[in-house]
Design goal:
This protein has 423 residues and is of the alpha/beta class. It folds into two domains: 133 residues, Aspartate Aminotransferase, domain 1, CATH 3.90.1150; 243 residues, Aspartate Aminotransferase, domain 2 (3-Layer(aba) Sandwich), CATH 3.40.640. Helices cover 43% and strands 17% of the residues. It has 15 helices and 15 strands. A seven-stranded mixed β-sheet has the order 4-10-9-8-7-5-6, with helices on both faces. A four-stranded mixed β-sheet has the order 1-2-3-13. Strand 2 and strand 3 form a beta hairpin. 50% of the residues are buried. The mean pLDDT is 97. 4'-deoxy-4'-aminopyridoxal-5'-phosphate (PMP) binds next to helix 6.
Amino acid sequence: MTHEAQDQASLFDTVYTAYKEFINPPLARFMKMAGAGVEVESRGCRIYDHTGKSYLDFCGGYGVFTLGYLHPRVVAAVREQLDHMALSSRVFFNAKTAALAKALADLAPGDLSITFFSNSGTEAVEAALKLARLSTKRKHIVSTFNGYHGKTMGSLTATGRDVFKQKFEPLVPEFEHVPFGELTALDRALEGAAAFIVEPVQCEGGVIIPPDGYLKGARDLCTKHGALFIADEVQTGLGRTGYLWGVDAEDVEPDIMTVAKGLSGGVIPIGATIANHDVWMCAFGDAPLLHTSTFGGNPLACAAGLAALEVLVDENLVEKSRLQGAYLLERAQALARKHPEVIATVRGRGLVVGLELHHEGYGGVIIPESLKRGLTAAYTLNQQRVIRLEPPLIVSRAEIDEAIGILDEAVAKAHDKLGALTA
Ligand code: PMP
């Protein structure tokens, strides 16, 4: 073994051992088995590990890296901000926080205008749920089976997968789940409800696209019942689905919208809950400190967010997502036709595409075999039978071709190893 190889091996051992001892022992073992190395650098659509090997990233941080890794304009904005102030004193006004809130109001659908800033998707959802209850003075929250909204108590209660929830019961009372894509049960559930929270596409649910007219129908039912429509755009927002917002597919105007993941260009964590002015005032008009966050809206994250929104617009990334997404879907469909015994179906909207396998066992081969060949791909959190492809919106056709080439080999390998499996 050369000195260099020895150094690489010892770095891996040190990091892996620390994960096993100090972070998450079973997850560490699982990641090692899947072939994960130590990430040391990332640029554009690629990650480099401790051996210098490069990986095309089609997980995209589960939707975080819309601009790819380390977009130079976002990095420059953060560096510049760091020379002046990183976190806010919270005693003074801050220009970056103000500017990002204004930019969001300009870009958000309908008349959404007031933003509560936080640091993650689940916090953005918690704020939305509290806002809805307070604003309507009602308690009941309706969400969907198979939906995903986060893992803190409120968002977890809204999440629609039992395995994440059962061990933590009792959860938050007065929540009810209805089937996604279906309006009859929703109509009944919304009677007297504070809000309906829904993802425009159930990304973690296995990239489930609702039938045409569903989002609009749900919006109308909320209006009919005086319930608020909360669009959870944590994953679908900011161009991911080929629209600026997932709800734009049906021109729906929510009362509250949650955003996170891609909002600060993959450089500093951020979450945002954007509400209609009247909705916000009804909740917090006479109690501005009822819901707060120490780090939420900090200048570093907001500087990153402002730069990220500018890049999204200047580089036409929403349109690119639509065009490249159509190409990725077409290539993935061709892959499914070539391997019908492994891939049951393919679906997608913009640059979130799901490959539904006949059996989740195939994923256990496809994911590590892809990694071995230089491609990251992952399950969706609620549905292990679906492999998601969610590359940065800057992905090129050549990179899509490269990813499909790798998947082709990995899928063939899964079939060779496992033969014909059915669910
Ligand atoms: N809502 C949606 C739609 C999500 O996809 C996610 C994360 N996958 C969340 C909320 C939670 O976000 P976070 O992991 O940042 O808390």
